[in-house]
Amino acid sequence: MNRSSLEIIIDILKVCGEETRKTSIIYKTNLNFIITEKYLNILVNKKWVEKTENAYRITSEGRIFLIKAKEVSLPF
After folding, report:
1. What is the pLDDT of residues 6-21, one digit of tens each?
2. pTM attached to this predicted model
3. Please, which of 21, 26, 56, 62 could form a disulfide with 48 given CB 3.0 to 4.6 Å?
4. Whole-number pLDDT of residue 20
5. What CATH number is given to the structural domain containing 46?
């Protein structure tokens, strides 16, 4: 079953809770390089994730979004 965009974003934000390299994000979210790159660019542009010299980490805005997204994605 394919994941929705929201589920992929939630997965990436969870992994970026600690400073994480792109390769680690790819493995932990079970995504390929191209999809991971696409979503990381979106998250950086929205300022939910920030890119450091060698890694990515979630921002405070990203943490707020993650909390709200988890609430919305709960099954009814």
Report:
1. 899 999 999 998 899 9
2. 0.89
3. 62
4. 93
5. 1.10.10.10
